[in-house]
Specification:
Blueprint lengths: L5 E2 L2 E2 L11 E2 L8 E4 L10 E2 L17 E5 L3 E3 L4 E6 L9 E6 L7 E2 L2 E4 L8 E9 L2 E2 L6 E6 L5 E4 L4 E3 L4 E6 L8 E6 L5 E3 L2 E4 L8 E9 L2 E2 L6 E6 L5 E5 L3 E3 L4 E6 L8 E7 L11 E4 L8 E9 L12 E6 L5 E5 L3 E3 L4 E6 L8 E7 L7 E2 L2 E4 L8 E9 L5 E4 L3 E6 L2
Length: 420
């Protein structure tokens, strides 16, 4: 028996294809089903209304196939790619499958799976499928796009700066490849063997030996991308600042005192500074130098500093603490020997003594009768044959030898000289 099939008054009997199966293909309109019957060498078409001449219409909702592409919808030239058509429907345990590709008028392939052993860009496109068993047919699947491109070259980026300090963390990213599509990543440092890892590589608490040139590539199955351009990572020892106090660590109340924080480190051109006192976590100054113009005992204490890279992320260690001692400015004491009252012709010695911590050597200046002009220098001043003209009020003060600290001026002591 030969059937003529019509849809919208179009005679489809001329649409002939060699096939030896019986199947139902897409319902073209709401109440039309095209049934395809076996005709040894030809497809023959006839319009059929549901529930009329034939018992082969499908009752209920037609199942809709689902297309999957492995290893991914976006693949690279030369990879092995498999298209698979799955139909989940009650009452039908085994299906036959037809594949269609966008832009082709004929059937593309038959079978539940189709594999491209070495895919090329020409295989890119939208693919959909049908399923049939006997006179039962599915809907047509949604189209799924396969994209084929040339193998990419990953880009390696360093998330932090390319030079860091020991103890920091460094994060490397191998970008340009979607890791969720079955890729694994291979990392190489200098000429060392490759190691397998994720697209992001983090090195915590780095050491100097972690520095070098890093590159990455990706692998899926037996296919490899090119290596990325190398990225250099330089690891420096984390610097430790040095604190200096001028004029000295032991000063007198009222002196001008300057604290200075110095950082010697490679790879950093600008620092911000943070000062701490007595192990407090509160920052009391943000300058490289901090000056007390008129220091008081309350400024005494242990001072330390640290630095952070200006506009960057790197930090130094905290410096060792340096102690500033502030004490009362010493006041010299004048003594006259043999006595404050002597007779003309005697030998008389004036002596200036200063008792103060932190100063090991003093230079002495003598003044007479309240004059600002220095009368003599030296700790002792001797009159070998005293006369009445040497009588008077004497005072002294001291200055640190080779330093900038001064004592108060002493109280004046009177020398009296009389005739015999």
């Amino acid at each position: 028996m030969i059937y003529l099939y019509y849809v919208d008054d179009v005679n489809l009997s001329t649409k002939k294809k060699v096939f030896d199966k019986v199947m139902v293909i897409q319902r073209l309109e709401e109440e039309q089903t095209i049934l395809v019957h076996e005709a040894k060498q030809h497809w023959l078409y006839q319009e059929h209304k549901p529930n009329s001449l034939l018992d082969t219409t499908i009752s209920g909702e037609r199942p809709k196939p689902k297309v999957t592409i492995k290893p991914a919808q976006h693949v690279f030239r030369g990879e092995t790619v498999t298209l698979r058509c799955d139909i989940y429907a009650q009452g039908v345990t085994s299906w036959s499958y037809i594949w269609y590709k966008e832009g082709l008028s004929n059937v593309f392939r038959y079978g539940q799976e189709h594999t491209f052993s070495s895919v090329t860009e020409s295989d890119s496109g939208e693919y959909s499928c049908y399923g049939f068993k006997g006179s039962h047919g599915s809907d047509r699947s949604d189209a799924v796009t396969l994209t084929v491109s040339g193998f990419p070259k990953p880009t390696l980026t360093v998330e932090t700066q390319s030079s860091v300090f020991t103890g920091d963390s460094v994060t490397l990213r191998c970008e340009g490849i979607q890791s969720q599509n079955g890729w694994e990543f291979l990392w190489r440092k200098d000429s060392n063997p490759e190691s397998t890892g994720a697209a992001t590589k983090t090195i915590n608490s780095v050491k100097v030996s972690d520095g070098g040139e890093y590159s990455c590539r990706a692998r899926r199955g037996g296919y490899y991308t090119d290596y990325s351009e190398p990225a250099a990572v330089t690891i420096y020892e984390r610097p430790k600042p040095t604190v200096t106090i001028k004029p000295a660590q032991h000063v007198f109340r009222g002196d001008t005192v300057t604290l200075r924080c110095d950082i010697y480190a490679q790879g950093v051109t600008g620092w911000s500074y943070y000062w701490y006192k007595d192990n407090s976590r509160s920052v009391f100054s943000n300058r490289q130098e901090h000056t007390f113009s008129f220091v008081a005992e309350s400024e005494a204490g242990k001072y330390s500093c640290k630095g952070s890279e200006t506009g960057g992320l790197r930090w130094t260690h905290i410096s060792d603490a340096v102690t500033l001692t502030v004490s009362e400015r010493p006041k010299p004491k004048v003594t006259i020997k043999p006595a404050q009252h002597v007779f003309r012709g005697e030998k008389v010695t004036l002596r200036c003594d200063i008792y103060a911590e932190g100063v090991t050597s003093w230079s002495y200046s003598w003044y007479k009768e309240g004059s600002r002009s220095v009368f003599r220098y030296g700790q002792e001043n001797t009159f070998s044959f005293v006369t009445e003209s040497e009588a008077g009020k004497y005072s002294c003060k001291g200055s640190e030898t080779g330093g900038s600290r001064w004592s108060h001026i002493s109280d004046a002591v009177t020398l009296r000289v009389s005739g015999i």
